[in-house]
Amino acid sequence: DNDGGLNDAELTALFAPTPGLPSSWVDSAFPSCTVRNEAGHITLQGWLAQWSMTTFEEPKTTLEYLAYLGFESQERGGTTAALKVTKARKRRNRPGRVERNVFLCYVLGAGGSGKSSLLSAFLNRPFSTTYHPTIKPRTSVNSVELQGGKQCYLILEELGELEPAILENQAKLDACDILCYTYDSSDPDSFAHIVELRKKYPQLDALPAIYTALKADQDKTMQRSELQPDDYTNASNMAAPLHVSVTWASISELFVHLAESATYPSTAFPKKNEQPVDRTNLYIALGATVCAAAAIAIIWKKTVSNS
């Protein structure tokens, strides 16, 4: 119907040769976790972002569904031709570029600091003043254009009530590329949550991090903390918090900064004499590549042209 999106009927027809939507898509509340058009239908940008996240988290699922959807053939070398195994991640605090083009960011902060609004803004959703506490983990995935025009995919994940379990799980931390510490700059008690969080989970220091002061469109207030945010980050030789608001068009610059920092993780570490122990060299990611994107795009175009 040339509306630039796949509606429910078109998605049902597309997934007819398969067992249905992957279970991980259901868990992430697809399609609300990715880019949709004004009618609420997933766009090509959202389609590619969703599959990039699936390939990053569950490469076997991508291979399985590429076969279901007709990608596998002798001429194309089978579904495995669509994926590329990237090198094991080296020490994150050493200068260098991460080879992958899909990155996972945990968004941490006190309740009401604006994490959910940040995830919505990442998908270009309108801002809502209604506050709903996040219970289950929530994910948003979208493409980000880096400096120089290179594109990557960024997964923002808000952990909800599973935050303690996830932050205590070393495998979950190994999968994370960067942390985004958020606080409400208009709430005097918001930043203290970050301080306590880092004390409770010292293993977070092994991850690159960006500090973000949300709700910068409101009146800034002094934080009830031993150190004010700028002094706290300065004491760790970290960059001062970025002051942003989801109501500003410039919020997109934060997403670019997060993606750039994930690509070059050493830039988002405190400068210390003793470097933290690296446990991530055992983690091997199967990153979504141009090949996988091309395969998924072909399936999209085939569905759109037939509808």
TrEMBL record:
The domain of life for this entry's organism is: Eukaryota
Physiological role: Mitochondrial GTPase involved in mitochondrial trafficking. Probably involved in control of anterograde transport of mitochondria and their subcellular distribution.
Q: Which InterPro entries does its entry note?
A: EF_hand_assoc_1, MIRO_dom, P-loop_NTPase, Small_GTPase
Localization in the cell: Mitochondrion outer membrane
Q: Which GO terms describe its cellular component?
A: mitochondrial outer membrane
- The record lists the organism as Cryomyces minteri
- Which Pfam family, any one, appears in the UniProt record? Ras
- What name goes with this protein? Mitochondrial Rho GTPase 1
Q: Name one GO molecular function term.
A: GTP binding
> PROSITE patterns from the entry?
MIRO
- Transmembrane spans: 282-300
Which residues does the UniProt record annotate as the domain Miro? 100-264
Which keywords accompany this UniProt record?
Calcium, GTP-binding, Hydrolase, Membrane, Metal-binding, Mitochondrion, Mitochondrion outer membrane, Nucleotide-binding, Repeat, Transmembrane, Transmembrane helix
**Similarity annotation:** Belongs to the mitochondrial Rho GTPase family.
* Bilayer topology annotation: Single-pass type IV membrane protein
